[in-house]
Fold:
Amino acid sequence: MTLDTTRDAANETMPRDGMSIIDTDRYPLDQPDSDALQQEITQARAGLEKDGCARLSGFIRPEAHAALAFETTALSPLALHSSEEYTPYGSGPDDSFPTDHPRRRAHRTTSGSVTRDLIPTDGLIQQIYGNPYLIAFIAACLSADEIYQFADPMRGLIINSMDEGNVLGWHFDANEFIVSLMTRRAEVGGVFEYCPGIRAPGNENFEDVKGVLDGKPDLIKNLDLQVGDLQLFKGRYSLHRVNQIEKGTRHTAIFGYTRQPGFIGSVASTMKVYGRVMQEHIDAEHTRQTDGLAD
Ligand SMILES: [Fe+2]
Structure:
């Protein structure tokens, strides 16, 4: 199905709060003790335990899909586009390893990012990201007492935009988990592929990682996300990628939460990824340095 992303289709009369577009019949977030929600939490926990991945299908009501796609499509011209080659470990190739070793094999990643400071606070995406019921629900799925939105004014919320020919190469994430919401699905390609638990602390399992990079399909699972699906994913131990977009455009909103409050990315890493920083990054850097000297 191709989404109509025109302004008419966006249904401008739709209430601008995150709750009204969530399918609360299936996911009654405001009734955390209800059987229906407890069942979803149990299922999500099982998926995270088994595969490091939980898909919450149909999280957004179908009648809101066009409005979501319209919002991310309207914001996508603001995306910063990058095209870089990384190894699965987020760095450039290390020539001290043999040529076919995973530490030496880089894959292209081409995509665009719209940072939180450019996303309207009264839009649907920001309203969903900050919805306290959603935050409590995700914490429950992760078996955490509480989780917090990033304090980072840019990284907390990202709209990832991929056009034809774009690809996210095989990689592990640096952060423990991500939450993403698909708002626009490519017509061909752009499928999420992952290898559950292919590595573990103390065991990089380069042999199987090499097998995946060589194209062996046996360890790879596909998750063909649909518009309105929410995905919880632990990417620290599961190699993953988004395969090349062959036709159409793919948009996801990436929600940044952490187990500790106050996360702000460093000036150096923010400059590297987004080409700019904000005052909050500079202030946080100063605090970090002051704390270091106080010891
Ligand atoms: Fe990732």
Summary: The chain has a mean pLDDT of 91.
